[in-house]
Amino acid sequence: MNTQFLTPYSEQAEQYFWKTGVAEIDLGKVPFQSIHNLLISKDNSSISSVGSCFAQHVGKWMIDNNYPFNRSKLDSRQISSFAFGNVYTPRCFLQWLTLDPAHSHRFDIFYDKNAERYIDLLRPNVHPDGFSSEEALREARISAKNELLATLRATNVLIFTLGLTEAWKDIDDVFYPNCPGVIAGEFNDAIFTFHQFNYNEIKSDLLLIKDIIQGINPQIKVILTVSPVPLTATASDKHILVASQYSKSVLRAVAGYLADNDEVFDYFPSFEIITVNNVNDFRFNENRRTVSNKAIEYVMSHFKSAFSDKKITKAQNNGEKNHQETVCDEERLDALNKLLHHSNDTTVNQLTLLGDSHMGKLAKALKEMEIPFMGGMVMNGSGFAQGKFSICETEYFVPLENAASRQLFAPILKNLQAHEQSKFEKKSVIISNIGLQTHQTVARFFTWLQKQKDADIKDITLKNYVDFFHEDQSKQLSILLTMKERGHTVIVVSDPPFCRYFKESQSMTWLVYSYFDALEYICSQLNILFFNAAKAFDEEIDTPMAYASDICYPDGQHDWIHGNSMYYTWLANKLLPIVSENT
User: Fold this and answer.
1) Distance CA 373, CA 359 (A)
2) What long-range pairs does 333-341 form, CB within 8 A, spacing at least 24?
3) Considering 80, 125, 289, 423, which has the largest number of Cβ atoms within 10 A of its Cβ?
4) Closest CA to 289 of 278, 300, 298
5) In sequence order, what are the residues at sequence separation of 6 or more whose Cβ sits closer than 8 angstroms to the Cβ of residue 411?
């Protein structure tokens, strides 16, 4: 036989070539052939799972499809094998395998003075309401550890979904599943620090985990997977896209090495199956492998900024704040100062304010009028408009703009939860401007509109706005809808009308006002009340500039986003009758 033209690839099967192994696969309909080498007996297996939030999907699918899955009897909130909640890093799982649950460390239990409950910061999602005593908390940990050991003894397949390399630890080197202060507790930078696990640390932790669980049960095999879910936020100094890819790459590299070099480990490619590029992805040509010219231009448009003027680049890297965020930061600092002076207030208020700096200024007006309420500003307008938060079933959402935003949201959440726990013994009304933020969202809408093939910028329709809300602001609107569905009356308030009264902002007035109209329509479809403050103000006030902000910046720009104190007093007087009707 003539072997002159044979190469190591000549007799390889179809799955070893991109064209036949990937490009010709109808993604989402046809499974990839021979993409893993796992062989698990459905009859003789006892399967457990641990890891990130993606691990819950694994457990749910196995239960739904009648596979032998070990589900925790101590955690009914999530579908998992152990009562630890999400375990994002190997170190956190290793910690549970090695710690003495009867012994607590200095900072892993948080006492909530307002609720008079003890919160387990090592398991904040398992018992979000906390415990009546430290003893009860430790007993629950002991039960969870005992269940862990019992389940491992009965397990022969452990699926470990690796989620993150980013973590938070305290000065005693205790690691936490979440940054303290995000879901529970309080963040103190003198106690808690950020830690980025590297390749060697991840590998070392997984090998230690193997040694421990093999000592408990020598029959256990470990299937490693990497969660395809990107990071929600990063505490590193990298862009979230870069930070997320780095984290997944490190985890994938470790998983691959262990699966290839240790017989206890195997690998299942959920990460690859979810993240592989699909057809009609502008970044790739039809073969889904070679990069398109359009993608190259897109990449190089980012690289071009490396050649920008040094002064401009420095300003961009320093995150130069725009004018409106400066005003908002002042409002937030004022709100935090007031919060510190009223941290022990346990009164349940019927009226709650939730939003950006407009809600902070409205809060000042209500306080001057001696109207009882809870809340005000939580994040900057950009925080809401750009989605700097994570949707959370138990807490509506978790603000991710900074630690201060979570501090400001905490008493608001407690007030709302108090109403829910009392089954609305007193009616609850929420005033919010989430979804507005027109100094940000109108620009986002215009950018979005320019990308739509069938859109006419000169003839914007209601459908254009509805589509935009669906694609760009659905998370924001879901917060309002969830609050309404849980029994609260929600009143959404438009931004002020002052864009029309300053030269630098007049050109966008028609977009701002049509945005108000569109959001009012959306709210009506969701049975959420909407107060168009701009429209009411224009119809009622003959001297609008008397209500405008008098802030003028060094470059001559005016604060057209906010009103002055007279405006927010006027707004309070317009809203209070609506609040009264609903309480």
Assistant:
1) 12
2) 334/360, 335/360, 335/363, 335/376, 335/377, 335/408, 336/404, 336/407, 336/408, 339/407, 339/408, 339/411
3) 80
4) 278
5) 114, 339, 345, 374, 375
- Lay out the sheet containing 221-226: strands in order across: 47-51, 157-162, 221-226, 265-267
Q: Which CATH number fits domain 323-581: 3.40.50.620, 3.20.20.70, 3.40.50.1110, 3.30.540.10?
A: 3.40.50.1110
H-only helix segments in 45-129: 54-64, 90-98
Distance between CA 487 and CA 396 in Å, rounded? 13
Q: How many residues does the chain have?
A: 583
Q: Which amino acid is at 280?
A: N
**In this structure, which amino acid lies at residue 126?**
V
Distance, CA of 148 to CA of 93 (rounded, Å): 11
Q: Quick one: average pLDDT of 167-176?
A: 95
Domain residue spans of the chain: 23-275, 279-320, 323-581
State residue 557's pLDDT score: 81
Q: What's the pLDDT tens digit per position in 25-75?
A: 887 888 888 888 887 877 788 999 999 877 778 888 888 888 889 999 998
CA–CA separation, 424 and 416 (whole Å):
10
The answer, yes or no, to whether residue 542 has pLDDT greater than 90, is: yes
Q: Where are the beta strands (DSSP E) in 102-220?
A: 109-112, 117-120, 157-162, 166-170, 175-176, 192-196
What pLDDT shows up at residue 521?
93
Average pLDDT over residues 235-249: 92
pLDDT tens digits along 370-409:
999 999 999 988 889 988 888 877 788 888 887 778 888 9
Calpha distance 583→246 (Å, rounded): 51
DSSP element (H, E) containing 354: strand 351-355
Q: Does position 316 have pLDDT exceeding 70, yes or no?
A: no
Cα separation of the two ends of the chain? 91
